[in-house]
Amino acid sequence: MMRKGIPYLLAIGMALLVACSNDRPDDLIPRETFIDLLVEFELLRTIQRVEGDSLLTAIYTETVMDGYGVSFDQFERSNLYYMSDQETYRNMYREAIERLNMEIGRLRATE
Question: Residues 11-21: pLDDT tens digits?
């Protein structure tokens, strides 16, 4: 039961941090790359739900970050920056979801 509340607590903590830090980081991940990362992380969340293996998910996460040449700290700073404009952040997530839906449609078409 406690696990379900953790994402909400993290979101609240992130929102509080956003309110205090909306300066553009020097190493900001470009918008399109950041959306690509959102897509990758949504896929990773799905793998986590299906596999239930947090160690495997951590390895995949590190592999994705390395593949894009970004660090976790850089991702966090970029995430906080983008979250400071809720409308922009919401649009970025919508675009990530659209990409996921297009990929699902493409995979279903090949079945």
Answer: 555 555 555 55
